[in-house]
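Read as chain and fold; for instance:
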Amino acid sequence: MNVTVILALGANLLVAVAKTVAGYITRSASMVAEAAHSWADTGNEVFLLVADRRARRRPDAAHPLGYGREAYVWSMFAAIGLFAVGAGVSITHGVQELLDPDPASDFVVGYVVLGIAFVLEGTSFFQAVRQVRREARRADRDLLEHALQTSDPTLRAVFAEDAAALIGIVLAAAGLLAHDLTGSPVPDAVGSIAVGVLLGVVALVLLDRNRRFIVGVEASASLRGTLERLLRAEPEVAAVNYLHVEFVGPRQLYLVAGVDLTGDAAESAVATRLRALERRLEEEQLVVEAVLTVSRGQEAVAAVDGAGRP
């Protein structure tokens, strides 16, 4: 199980219950929006746990490249839930409060709950940041770049949702405080709408990233370079003339390469050597399946562009 997702699930569940109670007591539009936000996040973490578990299933005859892309499908459901429940409820409730204001009360309860929520969400976010930073160093990326580009949709979702949760708490607190100081429910309603817009933007970003990986995303130039060097290091490989590396799941790659083998062996011997090379590549943790073909020795080594094609 993914520790980051489980920690986020526990934090969001506790926060959702606390915000719901506080929303009922205070009648604050911003607090109700934050309660909807946390319930949406809680449901999303369940989808993400399902995504993580189903994507780990091993390849079989029906799915020779494994089930990795299921992670993007279930993460897509989570993003849709964030958009529909979190953004939809928050914006709708905020608009209703603008049209038919309902003054809030017991503001101290709201402040206390938001403070506790900030600590819990911050703890979850800190865990997500640690994991993203650790992976970003290995991929030679900065933190935000890796959060967007990582092939792990559960990590990206937790990072984005926890960041949005912290910003949302600040927005809700500002709306609640303005309502308390001015006596007007308008800032509170505006805070609810702002939380909804924030969640909508985050959901659209997550939807777009999952869509890209479902369609198919080529590995980065640095990762392709690493795999090309791995191939060239094999004593039997004289040259690598074509290389295509595509993500088929979180940290799962499908590799196709055209290579020039050393010597001039017979066809039957070449097939055996190629299969042995494929098996050695598949022993790498990231490579789900490798397919190697023979290319002509006199061909120039192809320059692989950003799309992974020569």
About this structure: The CA atoms of residues 249 and 307 lie 18 Å apart. The domain at 3-215 is CATH 1.20.1510.10 (Alpha-lytic protease prodomain-like).
